[in-house]
Amino acid sequence: xxxxxxxxxxxxxxxxxxxxPALSQLCRSPDTFCDVEVTxxxxxxxxxxxxxxxxxxxxxxxxxxxxxxxxxxxxSSGVSVVNAVRSKGLNVHAxxxxxxxxxxxxxxxxxxxxxxxxxxxxxxxxxxxxxxxxTAEMLEGIDVLLFDIQDVGSRTxxxxxxxxxxxxxxAAHDIEFWVLDRPNPVGGVAVExxxxxxxxxxxxxxxxxxxxxxxxxxxxxxxxxxxxGIGAKLRVIPMEYWERCMTWPQTGLHxxxxxxxxxxxxxxxxxxxxxxxxxxxxxxxxxxxxxxxxAGTPHLDAEAFCARMKARGLPGISFEPTIWSPGRGGNxxxxxxxxxxxxxxxxxxxxxxxxxELLVTARTxxxxxxxxxxxxxxxxxxxxxxxxxxxxxxxxxxxxxxxxKSGLDAxxxxxxxxxxxx
Length: 422
Hints:
This protein is α/β, with parallel strands linked by helices.
C-alpha cells in the first residue's frame, strides 16, 4: 500500500503497489528489520518492467526519450531497459551514463567518456566526465528522461547525486523526469549514521540525509524534488511486490554488480561499514576478491583486535583474524592484519555503527595508523567533521553514535512523507 502522498510537482504513478503484508511481515520498529523472514508470493517487478507492461508506456509514444542507465537497468528477466523501451516502438534518442560507465566496468573515480554505442547506435553522454549535470547540448531534442539504475543504499554512492543533478537539469529545461524504481538492497527500514552537514555537501553526498537512508531511488527523487526544491516534472514508476522488510534474495531478482567493487548483494552492507574507514587508515580490502570485507592496518594484532571487537557484542556480524594483501590499487602488495567481516544476519547488522566501533578499537591498538590521511576526504565521506574529530580525540563509539540522534530524529518524519511502500 502507498504510504505518504506525492507532493508538489510529483506526479503519482498509478501502477499497483506492494501487497498488504501479513502480520508476520510487519517490522518491530523504525530502526530494525523484521522479526521473521518474509516469503513474498511474487518476484519483485522493477519499475522498468512495470512501465513496459502497463499502459504507462503509451504516454511516451510521441516523446523523444533519453535514458540514464547502466548495466543494472534491466527487467527481472534481464532485458535492458533500452531494449525493453524500444520493443514498444518508442523513440530512444540518447543514453546517459553515471560513474563507472554504461557497462559498470570503470574504476571508482575514473573518467567516463562520451561516445556512440556500437550496439544501439545511440550517443552515450557521460555524467561522470567534464560535466556532472546533463548539459543543454546533451538534452537537445529530449522530451522525457528515464532514470533506471540500481543503487546500493548509501549516501556516499554517487548514483543518487547523478539522479539529483539530472533532476536539476530536467527542471531547468522543462523536461519530464521518470524514475523507474528499484529495491534498496540494504532494506527499506533501518536508518543509520550522521545526517550530512550542508557544509560538506559534495557529489558523494549532496543533501542532508543520513548515511543509511533506507529509501529507494524513487523515494529519494521525491524527497530531493519537493523538500530540497528542485521542482522538476517528476513521475515515479513504482515496483510491484517490494516491501521494506525484504533482503535482496527475497526480491527474487538477480544481483548485477553495480560497480567493480560491489560484486555481490551482501557487499552493499559492508560498503556502508568499511567504505567509511579506509581514508582514516583502516584498510578495507579493496583490491582483493572480497572488497570491503576487511578491516585492518599494517600493525594490528589481528587476534587481539578481533577479540576486542567480539567483546563489543555487535549484532549480525563476527570477526575472524586474518592477514591480507591487495592485488591491485594503491595498496597493492602491502600487507595488512586485522579482521575479516563475516555477516551472519544482515537484518540486525548495523554497518555504520560498526564502522565507528572498528575505528575506535583500532585507534586504541594502533594509534599511529588511525589518522585522517586527507581531512577533507574523510569529512566529505562522513558528511561531517564530528566523526573524525571524535575518533582522534579518543571518544567512545557510544558517544559518537549518540551524537547522531538529534539529526535522525528530525529526518525520520520528513522521510515518512516520501515513502511509497509498506
